[in-house]
C-alpha cells in the first residue's frame, strides 16, 4: 500500500480541499492500493508525523518572502534528508519569490528570456545603466501581479531607483525607519523592454506532458498584463511555446510551473516563472494540452482542475519508483 500525506494549514483550505477531492477521484492511476491522510506541517513534531508516509503532497500558495523561505527549508529537508518523494519538489520551489534566482536559471541555461541584470553593487548598477538602451523594466525581486514593476524611460530615473535600493548610508537607513518606507531588497533588478506585446501568454505546465494556456491582455494604457484580470481563452496558443515550457519542466525536473511569456520577433521569451498560481483560472480553460509519446500535442476538451493532474503526476512518479514503495 502507498501512503500519501496531504499537507494542510499552508494556504487557503479551498486548494487543499480540491486536492483531497482529486486524491479520491484519481485513485485509479495508482498501480498499488493508495491511502492518504491530512497532515498539518505547521505544528511542532511534523517530522515524526511524516516518517510513515511514502510521498508528500502539498498545495502551493502566495505567502510572501519570509513565510515561503520557511516552507522551502522544509521541502529541502523532506526531499534531501528524509528522502521522501514530495510534490512539488525543491527544484520547483527554491526560486519562488525571487526573480533574481530565476535570472540565474535563465542566464546559465540560456533560456530565451529578456536580457536581465541583477546586481547588489551600486557602483556596478550605475556603470551598467550608463550604457543601457531605454526604456527598461525595473522590478522588485519578490511580489506578483505586476506589483513593484515599472517602466523607466531614462538613466536619471534608473540611477535614482538603483540608489534607493542599494544605498547604505546611516542617514538613509534612519530616514526609512522614521518615514516607514518600504523595506528595500538590497538588489536592483531590471530587464530589457520588449515592445509590441498587447498581451502576454501564461502557460502552466504540469509534469512532463500536460499544459494549460491562456492570454492576459494588458491593462488599459499600460504595458503590464500580469494581474490585469483580462483573460482570453479564445486566442490561439502557439505550439512552440507549449513545447518550450514542457521541455523546461523535463530538463529542470519541475513538477509544476507557470511561465509568463511575451514574444520578440515572433519567438516566445520567458519573462518569469512561478510554481504557484490561481487554480480557478486554470479550471476555466475550455481544455488542456497533452504531449503524446511521439512528441505530438493533442488538445483535450473539458474543464480540469490542476489538482487532478497533480495527483496523476504523483501517481506516475510513484508507479515508476517500483520496488522503492513497500507493501505495508
Automatic annotation (TrEMBL):
Alphabetized GO MF terms: ATP binding; metal ion binding
Annotated ranges, domain ATP-grasp: 103-154
Coiled coil: none
Name used for this protein in its record: ATP-grasp domain-containing protein
